[in-house]
Amino acid sequence: MTALPPPYLTIAEAGRLLAARKLGPVELTRALLARIAALDPVLNAFITVTERPALTAARAAERALAAGTRHPLLGIPLAFKDIYATAGVRTTAHSRLLADNIPTQDAETVHRLRGAGAVMLGKLATHEFAVGGPAFDLPWPPARNPWDTRRFTGGSSSGSGAAVAAGLALGALGSDTAGSIRGPAAYCGIAGLKPTAGLVSRRGVIPLAPSLDTVGPMAWTAEDCAILLDTLAGHDPADPASVPGPAVAYGRALQSPVKGLRVGVLRRVFERDAPVDPETQRMLAEALRVLRDLGCRVEDAEPPPLAEFNAVARVIISAEAYALHEAQLKTRLAEYSRAFRVRVLGGALISAADYLAAQRHRTDLIAAMAALFRRFDLLVSVPMAGPAPLLAEQRPDDGFARPMATTIANVAALPSLVVCGGFTSGGLPLGLEIMGPAWADAAVLRLGHQYERASGTRGRRPEM
């Protein structure tokens, strides 16, 4: 079925091999654990590797398969960003403040994946409490990019992006408050979905800014993200942010045609508001050609200025993150990383009037994007201005001064998928972003899947 060794299988490929009994869960899990042992000392994608529990789960999956049980995720090895609660396994949020935190219950998403028979390989690096940037003054180093280990993975789902790209896990969970799934997906050349707000339960996931937080899948392909979403999606009555949505079979929906879809191009964003580099411009031009060849009707779309989305996101995130950490900041300030302190302490200066103004304007921006979707089925843009930069401590004002195209989907509560759109002349991946109206996650995944198949970007892996 594939000439690649087991660590380079997609979730879909591995699932078929496992169901046909041509590959065993223990064999696959051992191969991935060996790859983690060989490569992670360089990549720093994992904070905790759960070797013994992983093999125990793999043996259980092997018995279930032998008994005739079938599920697309049965025996599939995954890993989780270290803000997801895992019963009996430490959940640190990449912070020394939680270095000894061992939850007694799984996050709802982890519970659903384990219930489907997935195998947990371990917990993945992030930025401290999923905010800030790469920090060099914490007990664990920042993750490195498999395409070039001198480079940044994007954040804050940094370990998730690195682990999937390097073949250390077949899929991962990340979180996205202002682009933290889609940034690493772009820089690491994988697929990452920020779902519609409320589609996937956040219960048991350490929050950053509850008004904007979402959690979702990261994998090598859009198809794999759809397979994960089939298990992850669904109302959780114990999560007040969870919303009963439509019942959708995301994996099956991938095969529906995209011919005739009205695709709006957010040219203003990548040409004026957050200009991209020449190689990204060329990638996007080629991507639009591919979409036209697939039968999509591609036209320019005019969203509100990116600066408005950025301002709303920054005020909300700063205020809510500071509020969540205020008590600890007053008593344990020095234990936080410098990057976290720089990003979060400013939230103490945001007034209630500023915060409410941001929330009110968010409502206006949601309405403006909803109006845009009366003309278009989906929107296309680029999440990052270029390929992954060199890994270094960021400027203190980076999170405020640099325009971030990814905030559009967070502020407007839209589903947004990043897939690998192409590569630079030096072989670094470049991301393509696809957004849809609320609850159109299936359409977003479908276009991403069809694009991946037509563009051929999934045949290229980092040379580790």
Key features?
single chain, 464 residues, Amidase signature (AS) enzymes, 40% helix
Structure report:
The model has no long low-confidence stretch (mean pLDDT 96). The chain has a single domain, classed as Amidase signature (AS) domain (Amidase signature (AS) enzymes, Alpha-Beta Complex). It is built from 16 helices and eleven strands. The chain is of the alpha/beta class.
Summary, kept brief:
The chain is an alpha/beta fold.
Mean pLDDT: 96
Question: What's the tally of helices?
Answer: 16
**Overall 3D geometry?**
globular
- Helix share, percent: 25-40%
- State the end-to-end CA separation: 22 Å
Domains counted in the coordinates: how many?
A: 1
Kindly report the spatial arrangement of strands forming the biggest sheet. Answer: 1-3-2-4-6-5-10-11-9-7-8
Low-confidence stretches: none
**Number of extended strands:** 11
Largest sheet: 11 strands, mixed
Name the CATH superfamily assignment: Amidase signature (AS) domain
Percent strand equals 5-15%
Quickly give the CATH architecture: Alpha-Beta Complex
CATH third-tier fold name: Amidase signature (AS) enzymes
